[in-house]
Structures are given as structure tokens and as C-alpha cells.
Design goal:
With 118 residues, this protein is mostly helical. 60% of the residues lie in helices and 5% in strands. The protein is built from six helices and two strands, in the order αααααββα.
């Protein structure tokens, strides 16, 4: 009886693992599409991938959000709300809002940015 129960539990766990693995694979970040959107939306005018330009690098942004439960929500809010941003020289301005309203494209962009932290 015990070995049957263990086999059922182990089988269920394996099935769950395969399902989750397929889900993660299906939700993989399309880095090329994310970079194209970042370029189209003008993000790369102020942000570089891995070095500071007028604003923090996308990699530094990713590192600052790494491990935070609300990282994706914070990034989506930042990209869609025109909140004020402050530059090193003290200048403040509204952050440009993404023109696209495609939620999948925005999620892909935020997932890509968040994946840059190493």
C-alpha cells in the first residue's frame, strides 16, 4: 500500500514538473522582439543595455529589481504611467509612456529587462 501511494505521489510530481517545464518553455522571452520594441519606443535613447547613458542601463535596472516579488508590476507601472524620474544632474521629467497597448509585448519587454540581471 505504501509503495503504491509513493508511486502515485511521485508520478504526480513528475507530471507536474513536466507541465511546469512546458509552461516555462512556452513563456520564454523573445529577446529580439523585446529589443525591437525598446528601440521603436525610444527606450534606447536614454538607456543602454549594459552601460549608463542619460539614464541607468537596462541591466542595472534589472539588478535593482532582482528578487523583488513586485518587480514586474513596478516595471510595468514605470513604463506605462509617466511617473517622474530624476536624473543625476537634478533635472526631473516624466518618463515616456509606451505607445503600444499590446499587453503581451509589454510583458515580453519587462520579462526581457528583468532577465538581464546576472
Amino acid at each position: 500500500m505504501r509503495s503504491t501511494l509513493q508511486a502515485l505521489v511521485l508520478g504526480g510530481l513528475c507530471s507536474t514538473g513536466l507541465f511546469l517545464s512546458a509552461q516555462v518553455h512556452a513563456q520564454a522571452v523573445d529577446a529580439d522582439a523585446a529589443q525591437a520594441l525598446a528601440k521603436k519606443e525610444g527606450c534606447l535613447k536614454c538607456h543602454a543595455l549594459d552601460k549608463k547613458k542619460e539614464a541607468k542601463s537596462l541591466t542595472d535596472i534589472s539588478k535593482s529589481l532582482k528578487g523583488k516579488a513586485d518587480a514586474e508590476a513596478k516595471l510595468v507601472h514605470h513604463l506605462t504611467s509617466a511617473e517622474m524620474v530624476k536624473f543625476d544632474d537634478g533635472k526631473e521629467e516624466e518618463h515616456k509612456v509606451l505607445k503600444t497597448k499590446d499587453k503581451a509585448a509589454i510583458k515580453n519587454l519587462t520579462d526581457w529587462i528583468l532577465s538581464l540581471a546576472k
